Amino acid sequence: MGQITVEKNVGGIEGLCIIKPAVHGDNRGYFMETYNSKDMQEAGIDRVFVQDNQSCSTKGVLRGLHFQKEYPQAKLVRAIKGSVFDVAVDLRSDSKTYGKWYGVELTEENKIQFLIPEGFAHGFLVLSDVAEFCYKVTDFWHQGDEGGLAWNDPEIGIEWPQLVGQYNGSASAEGYTLEDGTPLNLSDKDQKWVGLKDTFKF
Q: What is the CA radius of gyration of the chain?
């Protein structure tokens, strides 16, 4: 496990991991291994990833909170350009931390990777002018299988950094901005999700 360090169960939530790769740099730049299955297995992380995804978003974009209903995916996420605040919400009905969230800033400078197991909702807020975000998943995309939660559900209570605005009873982005005045930008679909108590039965 020489190329990564792993912090397990971050935020007291079983299965969430922060992974820091070894970065080898000199005056030419740097080199790092972004994924090594042997290192992951030695760290006790036994996942088979089947697909890599990448997105590009501008400042103020919030994507989420998304989950898969019948074909849950574990995700290994990182920012390769810019900065995002990445969030996972525990939706495992048998978990002691059901409904609890944890967030971490992922940047091109810190090169942190965030492992999110199956059974979580996931989302991120772009804090830089532009962010490129990439992630590995353990299952393929299945049409019609995506579900979602309101990003601002007060029952979950995510503390999104740099975000100002007042909850109006829905997931609408209206009235929300970043501290510098950048409007919050969500897809139409992400503004229609409802809260935890209306999505799941305790």
A: 17
Exactly one of 98, 135, 142, 176 is catalytic; name it.
Answer: 135
Cβ of 21: how many Cβ atoms within 10 Å? 18
| Successive 10-residue mean pLDDT values, the chain, 202 residues | 87 97 93 92 93 97 95 97 98 95 97 97 98 97 92 97 95 97 98 88 43
122 is catalytic: no
pTM comes to 0.94
Catalytic residue (choose from 66, 102, 122, 176): 66
Q: Is 66 a catalytic residue?
A: yes
